[in-house]
C-alpha cells in the first residue's frame, strides 16, 4: 500500500513537470514541487505523533491459563497538540495470543488520556517477563510508519487452569469404615448451628433434624458452622524423567491442574490447604492458604502462585520428597500425593507414611495415555499402584484428555 502511494505521487509529479514543459506553464512546476514536498511535511507530522507521549500498562489479574485476560494501556498526551492514528502492537511471544485490541487505532486529544484494552489469551500457566511493547503511528498520508519501543519491566503470573474434579475420598474414612468423616470434611463439624438443609448421602445420622423431617416428610439435617474442617496437604511430583506428553498438555501440567482443582474444592469446603513440591533447582516450594476461617477466594492465590512457578526438576525423586516431608507433615491433615509415576521406592515411602498413622490418598497421572509414553514402565507403575491400594489407601488415576478434562477413576 505504501509503495503504491509513493508510485502515485512520483507519477503525478512527473506528469505535472512533463505537461508544464510542453505547455510552458510555470504554475505546473510549482504544483509538482508542492506534490513532492507534501510527503516530507507528512513525514514530519507523523514523526511528531509519538513524541512526548506517556504510556502506562496494567495487567488485570488474576490471569488464568487458557482464558482471556485484559491488558490495559493508558496513553497520556501532555501537550496541546492532538495526536492521531496511533496503535499499540501486541508483543510477539509464544505463550501469548492477542484476541482483539479495542480500539485498534486511536487518537489522544490535547492534554488528554486514552485507554486501550488488549484482550489476550495465555496458552500456558507460568511466570513470564512482561518485557517491552511497541507503539506505532502513521503520517497523515499513510506513507510512513513510525515505531517507538516502551520499556515495561515486570512479571506476569498465569495461574493454572482450575477445572471440575470428581470427588475423592480424602478424609481418612477408609480407615473407619464409615462416611461421617467425609461429611465432616465437606460440611464442618462445629457446634454452632447454621441452619438446615436437605439430606445428602454420607451425612451422619446424628445430624438429622427429626422434628422438621417428620413435619415435612423429607429428610433434613442440621448444618453447622465450619469451625472444624479437614486440612488438606498436597504433595506434588515434579520429577523430570517422569514427564511425558507435549506442551502444554504434559503429565506435569495435568498434575498441576489437578492440584489446583483439588485445592479449590477443599477451600470451598472451608479447609486449610498446604502445597509442597520441588522447584527446578531442587529446593522445596511450600505454600498455604492460611486460616480456613477466611472464606474469600483470594486465600487460594498463594497456592495458585506457587503452582504457576513450578517447573520440572531432575535431582530429587518423589519418594525422597515424601520421606523428607513425613517429619513436617501438617498435623491432622489428609495428604494427597499427586505422582507422575509410581515405583517400588514410592510404594515403600507411602507404606512408611501409613505406618506413622497419617491419612493418605494418591492421585497418579496415567502417563501411558499421553503422547510419547513409550519410555514409561507401565508394568512397574501399575504394580506399585496396586501395592499402595492394598494398604487401604484410596488410589485414583488421571488419564490424558485432549480437551484437558480431569476425569479420574479409582483403582480397585
Secondary structure elements and pairings:
Elements: H1 2-23, H2 26-48, E1 54-59, E2 63-64, E3 68-76, E4 83-89, E5 96-102, E6 106-108, E7 113-122, E8 126-129, E9 133-138, E10 145-150, E11 155-159, H3 173-176, H4 180-187, E12 193-198, H5 210-216, E13 220-224, E14 231-236, E15 245-246, E16 249-250, H6 251-268, E17 273-278, E18 284-288, H7 301-308, H8 318-326, E19 333-339, H9 344-355, E20 359-365, H10 378-390, E21 395-398, E22 409-410
Parallel strand pairs: 2-11, 14-17, 14-19, 19-20, 20-21
Antiparallel strand pairs: 1-3, 3-7, 4-6, 4-9, 5-7, 8-11, 9-10, 12-13, 15-16, 17-18, 21-22
The H-level CATH homologous superfamily of the largest domain, spelled out, is: von Willebrand factor, type A domain
* Tally of alpha and pi helices: 10
- What is the helix fraction of residues, given as a range? 25-40%
Uncertain regions spanning at least 5 consecutive residues:
172-192, 225-229
CATH class of the largest domain: Alpha Beta
Q: Measure the end-to-end span.
A: 67 Å
Oligomer: single chain
Q: Within the CATH hierarchy, at the fold level, what is the topology of the largest domain?
A: Rossmann fold
Would you tell me the overall average pLDDT?
80
User: What is the total domain count?
Assistant: 4
Residue share in β-strands: 25-35%
Gross morphology: elongated
The strand line-up of the biggest sheet is: 18-17-14-19-20-21-22
Tell me about the biggest sheet?
A: 7 strands, mixed
Under the CATH scheme, which architecture of the largest domain would be assigned? 3-Layer(aba) Sandwich
DSSP strand tally? 22
Radius of gyration: 32 Å
